[in-house]
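pls ignore typos typing on phone
adenosine-5'-triphosphate + seq
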Amino acid sequence: MLEVREISKDYREFHLRDITFSVKRGEHFIILGPSGAGKTVLLEVIAGIIAPDSGKIFLNGEDITGLPPEKRGLAYIPQNYALFPNMSVFDNIAFGLKVRKVPKAEIEWKVKELSEVLGISHLLGRKPKTLSGGEQQRVAIARALAVEPELLLLDEPFANLDVQTRGRLINEMKRWKKELGFTALHVTHSFEEAVGLGDRVGVMLNGRLVQVGAVREVFSRPVSEEVARFLGFENIIEGLAEGRILRANGLMIELPAEASGKIRVGIRPEDIVLSDEPLRSSMRNTFRAEVVGLEELGLLVRVRLKAGGVELSAFVTRSSVLELGLDAGKNVWVGFKASAVHVF
Ligand SMILES: Nc1ncnc2c1ncn2[C@@H]1O[C@H](COP(=O)(O)OP(=O)(O)OP(=O)(O)O)[C@@H](O)[C@H]1O
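k done
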């Protein structure tokens, strides 16, 4: 339904380059990238707020590149929600319908339906500034969906919310989508949103769309080391492969498939297990390692290790740190499955 073809936009220091992708009807498409990757610029080009230097945008086969925002049939929710501060929640949601001169009874029915699904029926008489961030986001989504847009454009919809509210809204959005059946193009830097909501994901780095695919596929098979690093493959190891074995700085690592010559592999820190005893089970890659340092990450702790001449990072829980008595200088066993080793 949405087709973006070779969109480019140059600012002095930032270049959005040849962005090409499409969104299918009913899909939740995520553009995932770090801060400054150009996600907002891309969304604003699609919304019609910024004109691209080159490239085209099609909606249901029609070229909308030159159309003003209001003629595109898209609803754009910016990061700050942009609710009308002087209007009640009801009037905010009803706004687009009133502009389109929809009969009053129909407006009331539509606002009622949307506010019930979104859980904001009790807020209809309130002004936006009296609402919490999560409530404002629900109102912004209701207002956008009221006019039944072809496509909903969401810019970091949950970025300004606390962790609990964000988790709840991610879950609820799945239900809203089922009940209301919209198509969404959603930009975010959050892996949680990408994994929780995305049907497909496009990874954006430095103004380029570097990989597009099903969420699971992109997270398990990044196309390049750059994408892998962004997606959390912290351990990148270079070595010489022969058959299923990679020799790297004193370690012999079993690979998931045969390879040959100089290659690089990536392993996620959450796929590395630490133990006091040599690990049995199906983990063929088991090595003795020394703890180099610990870093607090909130719920988890990053353990920096050295095995042979290879540096590794592993994520463990705080209770594992205590149980294993992890501290700099301590020797432990590290283990990871061959299937956790990703060959680039
Ligand atoms: N009008 C402008 N003039 C010059 N540079 C701009 C303009 N608008 C955006 N940029 C630059 O484009 C780059 C991408 O910005 P953008 O807001 O799209 O990033 P983002 O991926 O959405 O990041 P964030 O999540 O932090 O908003 C930034 O370096 C920004 O400074």
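The chain has nine helices and 18 strands. The mean pLDDT is 92. more later
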